[in-house]
């Protein structure tokens, strides 16, 4: 049951490990959680939604809102939503924008999250973007979140105060895994693979960054993989 006096935060819950860790950080900071999950035509949307539901139960969230935003897949331009484009093999050293980039997705997601937050008198919106994301995804840069904060301040009611919180923008995936392990984040209830619903492929960018993070901290990633390459630096 919602506590009328509690601080409230919307968490963009993709079903993945970064957003699950963001939810744990928000809860640790004293926020009551309102999780927002979107299905936008991504290849693994069913598994991601199941993970988001399981996380909502784990965190005893006040609400889980599931939105279907198929306009992103209809617009196309991403290997996550376009069956005609292959999901690339992992290249952890690349500075190029990968084909998995969904054009301006985070602006779409944050706009919906801000609407949800304002309607429920929430004080913040949390997103799990991190530094290894913004090397390839322009809508994960700290400057993007700063700019979006201005949009929220200008575009909501005068008495609405919603902070855009991206606590991991200066963190690596390894930092997130370490912090989340300390917070007992249920990583068995998360999904990161871009390609497959079960088991995870282990060789796309998302799997590689995730496996590398767990390998770097000496913790076994609890989900199943078709392959578990060693991504640690020799």
TrEMBL record:
<keyword id="KW-0067">ATP-binding</keyword>
<keyword id="KW-0547">Nucleotide-binding</keyword>
<feature type="binding site">
    <location>
        <begin position="13"/>
        <end position="23"/>
    </location>
    <ligand>
        <name>ATP</name>
    </ligand>
</feature>
<feature type="binding site">
    <location>
        <position position="193"/>
    </location>
    <ligand>
        <name>Zn(2+)</name>
    </ligand>
</feature>
<comment type="similarity">
    <text>Belongs to the QueC family.</text>
</comment>
<dbReference type="Pfam" id="PF06508">
    <property type="entry name" value="QueC"/>
</dbReference>
<keyword id="KW-0479">Metal-binding</keyword>
<feature type="binding site">
    <location>
        <position position="201"/>
    </location>
    <ligand>
        <name>Zn(2+)</name>
    </ligand>
</feature>
<feature type="binding site">
    <location>
        <position position="207"/>
    </location>
    <ligand>
        <name>Zn(2+)</name>
    </ligand>
</feature>
<comment type="function">
    <text>Catalyzes the ATP-dependent conversion of 7-carboxy-7-deazaguanine (CDG) to 7-cyano-7-deazaguanine (preQ(0)).</text>
</comment>
<protein>
    <recommendedName>
        <fullName>7-cyano-7-deazaguanine synthase</fullName>
        <ecNumber>6.3.4.20</ecNumber>
    </recommendedName>
</protein>
<dbReference type="GO" id="GO:0008270">
    <property type="term" value="F:zinc ion binding"/>
</dbReference>
<comment type="pathway">
    <text>Purine metabolism; 7-cyano-7-deazaguanine biosynthesis.</text>
</comment>
<dbReference type="GO" id="GO:0005524">
    <property type="term" value="F:ATP binding"/>
</dbReference>
<keyword id="KW-0436">Ligase</keyword>
<feature type="binding site">
    <location>
        <position position="204"/>
    </location>
    <ligand>
        <name>Zn(2+)</name>
    </ligand>
</feature>
<keyword id="KW-0862">Zinc</keyword>
<dbReference type="InterPro" id="IPR014729">
    <property type="entry name" value="Rossmann-like_a/b/a_fold"/>
</dbReference>
<dbReference type="GO" id="GO:0016879">
    <property type="term" value="F:ligase activity, forming carbon-nitrogen bonds"/>
</dbReference>
<dbReference type="InterPro" id="IPR018317">
    <property type="entry name" value="QueC"/>
</dbReference>
